[in-house]
Amino acid sequence: MDGQRFTLFAVLQRGRLQYEALLLLASLAETNPSGHFDIVLCEPVPGPLWSFDPRVQDPTFRALLTELGAEIRPFDNQVFGETYPHGNKIEGLRALPPDQPFVFVDTDTVFLAPLDQVPFDFDRPTASLRREDTWPKPDVAGHSREVIWRALYHRFGLDFEASLDPAKDAEDWERYLYFSAGWFFHRDPVRFGGRFLEIAQSIRDAPPPELAGQSLDPWLDQVALPLVIQGLGGGRQTLPPGLLDGRVSCHWRTLPLLYAREGDDVIDLVERIAAPQAIKKHLKAYEPFRKLIYQGKGRRVQRLFTDGPLPRQERLIRKRIREAGLWLR
């Protein structure tokens, strides 16, 4: 890292995300008490793209978020909104300081170690590679992965060949640049956000014919993200492996998956930071947190996977948890 201060950015919204954001901030207070970054929670405000007020309503909850070091910044939805809330991570970038690099993380993230262990090169953006083969589905309408991805790169004037992993075969999904949108970073939130919005809106409103039959909900942000990163000079693994999505941070996705997949170090940290009364009195209002963390059902999920290897496919993990009556989200 070049020593420049950066913004750690997440999206805040009433409901599930507010409780995840509180756990995220509690983890930062535990592991990054003097971080070289500012924490900004970008919150959508009411408008024509919402049928309800998406802001956190409880003033004591909001006060606790700020006590834990976060600044809450409002933003207007001009393109997305209630019908595609994943778009908040795109439009929220407009609310960030334009002169300061940023690191975005989903609220369903906890930090396990100081972020200063991560040597961010903000001129070479990248994103999380903790993902599965979720998009595209090559059997839909007969188009191959290569045809689909090539069409997208052509649409935006990008070098498709430079994005490929030549060590992978043409039908291997990892040959193509594809990320989880659980975290990403860049030097300029205005430039990154503007390009992200332009590409995502173009794909949503006028998808290339090669995308016929492909679902873009919820995958639109993950379809657009590699195109943004490639166009801004980034790519795969511009960070050393094993830091984000490793020893520094955990993108846990849902609490049942956290208890199923993560080690005792992560689970112990989550339960420890959730224990103080000021945190607990808010988190227990959310049923999955109340039952899995405070009533011990999370440890029951953990015990479902202690005998034998963890299933490689997430759907099989979910199936086992559901069969035990412990899937809570």
What does this structure look like?
- This protein is of the alpha/beta class and 329 residues long.
- The chain contains 14 helices and eight strands.
- The strands form two sheets. It has a six-stranded mixed beta sheet with strand order 3-2-1-4-7-6. Strands 5-8 form a two-stranded antiparallel sheet.
- The protein is globular and about 55 Å long.
Which secondary structure elements does this structure contain, and how are they paired or packed?
Layout: E1 6-11, H1 16-31, E2 37-44, H2 59-67, E3 70-75, H3 88-91, E4 102-105, E5 109-111, E6 127-128, H4 145-155, H5 160-163, E7 180-186, H6 189-205, H7 220-231, H8 243-247, E8 249-251, H9 255-261, H10 264-273, H11 277-283, H12 287-294, H13 297-303, H14 314-323
Parallel strand pairs: 1-2, 1-4, 2-3
Antiparallel strand pairs: 4-7, 5-8, 6-7
Strand order of the largest sheet: 3-2-1-4-7-6
Helix content: 25-40%
**Overall form:** globular
Classification by helices and strands: alpha/beta
How do you describe this structure in short?
The protein has 329 residues and is α/β, with parallel strands linked by helices.
Tags for this entry?
single chain, 329 residues, 6-stranded mixed sheet, 14 helices, globular
